[in-house]
Design brief:
alpha+beta; Aminopeptidase; eight-stranded mixed beta sheet; 5 helices; 10 strands
């Protein structure tokens, strides 16, 4: 089942969210991803010469975009890989970074989400809320039982924010042992001084945690994207009651 192309959820008169419905829409999302991941975070992208972030998963995914209505500018994006499309591929994107063997029993019910980003001039609650509203509608129509994927934290500060974040998560939001995943390349947590004041939790990860998501173990180190990736898992039946209205 496909999300209606007519989806348009307005958080303010100037912003709306919908699924990309053309190659041009997807390319606009890829340009935003390039600006955030390459220009801001220092990612080394194979598609950098084109001024976009593109990989082999894009053609199989559905893409959510938040637009500024007056200019048509894409200021937020998310991509989603539903189970029926994941089965056409060798594996989930997350498997490049994590061993997901312990999640084998639920793979056919996972909607993998990722590549989420917001333009630096629009990082406020309204855009994040729109992305969540669009994602909620998508999950409902796809019938997914789990949301899963990587949430990234930049390492441009030497890893302090990522380590601080993991220490905060470790105490309250780790998945039960039977839901843990293992990074192929672990972030060397012990090599980063983490005695600085706790860093603020990035808005996207905060949204996951507030909704009831788990972090399924230590973060992976992604040298190409110069970031730490946290594997997030949100069982839909665990969804925080405050958020259930978006998914019903």
């Amino acid at each position: 089942m496909q999300l209606s192309e007519q989806l348009a959820v307005s958080a303010a008169p100037k912003l709306s969210v919908r699924l990309a419905r053309s190659d041009k829409d997807i390319r606009r999302a890829q340009k935003l991803r390039y600006q955030v991941f390459a220009k801001e975070m220092g990612a080394q992208l194979a598609s950098a010469a084109e001024g976009i972030d593109r990989d082999e998963y894009d053609a199989h995914c559905d893409h959510l975009i938040v637009e500024e209505q007056h200019s048509g500018k894409v200021i937020g994006t998310y991509r989603m890989l539903p189970p029926h499309k994941a089965r056409q591929l060798a594996g989930l994107y997350s498997e490049h970074e994590f061993d997901l063997a312990q999640l084998a029993g639920i793979r056919d019910h996972i909607i993998e989400v990722g590549r989420s980003c917001v333009h630096k001039d629009y990082r406020r609650g309204a855009v994040i809320a729109l992305l969540w509203a669009g994602l909620a509608d998508y999950v409902r129509q796809q019938g997914g039982h789990y949301l899963a994927g990587c949430a990234s934290v930049s390492l441009m500060d030497g890893g302090h924010q990522a380590v601080s974040l993991y220490r905060q998560i470790e105490a309250r939001h780790l998945a039960p042992p039977e839901w843990r995943v293992t990074p192929h390349l672990s972030l060397p947590l012990h090599k980063v001084q983490d005695n600085a004041p706790a860093a603020p939790i990035p808005p996207l990860i905060k949204g996951y945690l507030r909704a009831g998501a788990w972090v399924c173990g230590e973060p992976a180190w992604d040298p190409d994207f110069n970031c730490a990736d946290f594997f997030m898992l949100l069982p839909m039946d665990k969804l925080d009651k405050r958020h259930q209205r978006h998914f019903s």
